[in-house]
Write a structure and sequence with these properties.
With 224 residues, the chain is of the alpha+beta class. The chain has one domain. It is 26% helix and 23% strand. The strands form three sheets. It has a four-stranded antiparallel β-sheet with strand order 1-2-7-8, with no helix packed on it.
Length: 224
Amino acid sequence: MQRRTNRRGYTEYFVKDKHLKLNNLKLEAERFGLENRYLRTENIPEYPKPEFHTSLLKHETTGSALGGIRKDGGFRNPYGGPLIWWSLAVGPEELKGAEVRLLEKTFPDRMEVEDAEQQSFLWRFATSPAFLETSRLGTFRFTFPLQEVLTAYRDQFCSGSQPIMRVYETVLYKQEVMHVILVHSPAHQNFSHCPFLTDDPEAVCVYRDGHFIWRSEAMCEKHW
């Protein structure tokens, strides 16, 4: 685990080239000597283990950056770095889809009446900032279909070749864990040290059939 200060002045603790699950992240934090009360939490109640399938990406920004996006006619790193940051857009539709998959797995023989009664429960556990409709990064949000973004990137930066996806890092904030996926052109070899993103059934994040799958974990003692 390493430490850095991001462009907004916040301290980040991160592990390169890995997407760590909560237990392994706790071990890394202990070795680093990091005190984080959420990682010390042991009495996490039982909760559903959903898979969120999302085919939407969001980019949140401030009013001043919005002017730059309009001027450039597109997106770039305002600090001059090589990376442009996008987040998964996990909203009501994604929650509903995760609920259906959980019910089908847990109660494969359920009746239609039971199905109607059992749905709409997952929102009680979706208290992470990742599910917020509002943004902590600015008052403006762009939302695009994932395939539209990947196609534009392929055509503009990859000479028509398919982009490569890799496991970039795990970042720990005070109340949040971020798993970063790197998408880059096949022409760039600077990221060969990062493992390829594979469709691993045990992985936190995978890409499959045109969408990302996020297997979230709870890290606090209460879910609502």
